UniProtKB/TrEMBL annotation:
ARM repeats lie at residues 282-324. The keyword Oxidoreductase does not apply. It comes from the Eukaryota. Residues 25-133 form the DUF7032 domain. Keywords: Membrane, Repeat, Transmembrane, Transmembrane helix. This is DUF7032 domain-containing protein. The chain crosses the membrane at residues 20-42. InterPro entries: ARM-like (IPR011989), ARM-type_fold (IPR016024), Armadillo (IPR000225), DUF7032 (IPR054296). Gene3D superfamilies: Leucine-rich Repeat Variant. Coiled coil: none annotated. It comes from Gossypium lobatum.
Amino acid sequence: SEQPQTPTSEPSGPQPPQTLLNLITTVVSLLLLSSLTVRSFVGRWQVLRSKLCTLQSSLSSISESPHWDDNSLLHTLFPSLLSTLQRLKPLSDQCTLSSFTGGKLLMQSDLDIASSSLSTHLHDLDLLLRSGVLHQSNSIILSHPEPGSHKDDLGFFIRDVFTQLQIGGIEFKKKALESLLQLLNKDEKSTAVVAKEGNIGYLISLLEVNSQPLIREQAVLAVSMLASSSQHSRKIIFEEGGLGPLLRILETGSVSLKEKAAIAVEAITAEPENAWAISAYGGVSALIEACRSGSQPIQTHAVGALRNVASVEDIRLALGEEGAVPVLVQLLVSGNTAT
C-alpha cells in the first residue's frame, strides 16, 4: 500500500505557530504508525516510540494552554522540532524495508542522533510546561515587576526569565539575563524569590569558560549579586556548586570577571559552614595569588575571603605553607587594602 506523505514545512518564511503545531502533530502520528512496522533496529525504535508518545502528550498539553501561541520560545522550538521529526520519517521507511542507503552503521548513528535531539526537545517542552508561563499572556510576564509586587507575579516573571535562559538561543539568554539583572538592581527583596523560583544550578553552569563571553559576564554578575544579598541565596549558590567555578574565574578570568567573582567568594565564605570548601576546591592558592597580583577591588575581597577561611585550622596551616603571610604583610605595608 502507498505510504502516507510526510508534511514538509514551506520554505517561504516562518509559519504561524498553529500551522507548525498541526504539522508536528501529523508527523508524530505518522511516525508512531511507522514505528509499529519497522523490521530493523527494533530496540531503538521502541525507545523512539516511547519518546514520540511523550511528545504527543506534551503537544496536547501545549494546545490546551490558553496563551501557548503567544510564547516567543515556541516560535523557535517548533521549527527545530519539526526538522528533527522530518529527518526521522525516511529513517523509519528504511528500517521498515531493511534497506539502508548508507549502510547499517550510518543508520545506527542517524537514529541515535535523532533520539538525542528528540530528548532535548522533550526536555525543553517539559520545562516550558512546568514553568506555567503558557497560562499567562506575554503582556503579563514580560512586564517588569515593580518593587513590592505580589509574590505570585514576581514568581511568574522569574520562572519565565529562567525558562528563556535555559531553552532559548543566545539572544533569548542575553535578554533573560538583562531582565534578571534589572530585577536584582531594582528590588533587593527579589533575591529570595529568585533563589526559590529560579534554576540557580543552571545560572552557575553559565560561569564556565565555554559560555558565550557576554552571557558569562552577565551570569557572573548575577551570581555575585545573589551571593551578596542574603544568607539563603549564598546557601543555594554553595549547594549548587558555585564556589568551584567562581574560584576558577578568580584564577583565569578577565579583571572585570575576577572582581565580581571575588565579591561572591568573600560573601560565600562568610558562612562558617562553607569555609572548609575553599581547601577542597584548591582555592587557597587562587586567593593568595589574587592578593598578590589582583586589582585593588580584587585584593580587598580576596583578603576578606582569606580572613573568613582562616578560622579553619587546616586552611590556616595551608595559608602558612603557601606563603600567604608575606603577601598580606606587603599589602599592609603598601596600604593597598584593609588587611
